[in-house]
Amino acid sequence: MTYLNELMSSRELLANLTAREVKGKYRRTVFGQLWSLINPLATMLIYTIVYSFIFRARLEVGDPSGLSIYPLWLMCGLLPWIFARNVINSGMTSIVSNGSLIKKVYFPRMALPLAAVGSFGFTWLVEMGVLLIALAIAGSNFWLFLPLIVLTMVFLAMFASGVGLVLAIVNVHFRDMQHLVGIALQMWMYLSPIIYPISLVEDATQKAGHPWILTVYRLNPIERFSTVFRNLMYDNRLPEWGDLLACLVWACASLAVGYAVFSRNEKKLAELL
Amino acid sequence: MNDVAVSVEHVAKRFRMFHEQNNTLKSAVMRGRKSVHEDFWALKDVSFEVPRGSTFGLIGRNGSGKSTLLKCLAKILYPDQGRIQVHGRQASLLEVGSGFHPELSGRENVFLNGSILGMTKKEVTRKFDEIVSFAGVGDFIDQPVKNYSSGMYVRLGFSVAVAGTPDVLVVDEVLAVGDATFQKRCRTKFGEMREEGRTVILVSHSMSTVRDMCDQVAWLDGGQLRSAGAASPVIDAYTATV
After folding, report:
1. Interface contacts (A, B; CB < 8 Å)
2. Which CATH number fits domain B1-20+38-88+170-178+194-242: 3.40.50.300, 3.40.190.10, 3.40.50.2300, 3.30.540.10?
């Protein structure tokens, strides 16, 4: 508990570290913060062209919103995923890449991975804002669900921070981790219904006669998160409570494990780097 | 115990010297959890007390454990045995400007570094002018710090650290970087801090600096405490062995 107190008292440090990441990232670039919008837009364009025009992925019609715009449907799942991926990646490397700081100054080390969460959270917030504006123009009526959208965003941030905290410690011991995780994250994305609808998986498992595959597939927490985000933002309906509950459980469990692992290993970090 | 700023009690610090370190996944898998190492005790049963309001020097040869002890004092390393108690607020300056972000301006870095050292934004704002004038960086304060000369870098970092009015300031051999004017200014600052009842702990190889600035000295040799006490006799004993 004393550690939590210490962390709380260093929230100003956390804010400053976050600002450092946000400001430092696009310093001396012409477009500055705009880059954080250009990146997801470019990704959206690529996936839309490849999956919507070339592969002719099935277009999901929002129920009851009636939307049927692939890029918007895609972004409802892709933006949360990009955020989670960035948090996991930069949370993992935050300790190793700030080694010089850790070896010279004392402060609660958890501020470093959490600052990564903060800086990507800031970018994500802007992206989601832009997406919601685009959805509103397209005719999505998500206003009633806004509190739930924000809540799910918090859950996802908690989930990703927990994973990032654990990996940050593991990465100090085994530097292989960052390369392994790069591959794992890529696989994870394709194993989640982000660029394709889950109905394709349902069909495929049915056709193959192995419905249990779908059950295993749905154990993936990112599947729950993207389902909930799409229910709220694209379909404009309440998600199934089971899905929302699963998000909450994943969020709390991941953060609790991350916190426990990190605070237990924190003191050894300076020596190991 | 009110006149003791820092008490070091039976502190020992062990380093593992790995012959084959398990920090790739491959080696961990190949050898299981076992890794081959030897223990090296960088500090062995070191105990002393630093009186409040003193300027305390740590001296000794290279590899005698000074820096390890300093890092333990700064809470960067944790002793394997014994304990260190610090009474009051502590700031450490093991490498000046270590928290600086090169692309950010001096002004932004002052706030960033201030918060790393545990100061609140309000406090930094209040002392901002004092920090800038002490560092003597003048108009460069709004320039990115990567354009600073190394002297300016050090001076700004040092100014932020002392502005926090720590009860205990831990300083590594960083002051040697500044020019004579700045060193003099530091000396005056340490004098002021001593008068305010604040404690400075520093490491230096320059015996003239130590003689000049410190009133108490601890002499480490091979990880063990040879002697501690009033400055001149300990320094004389140390110089006799060199």
Report:
1. 76
2. 3.40.50.300
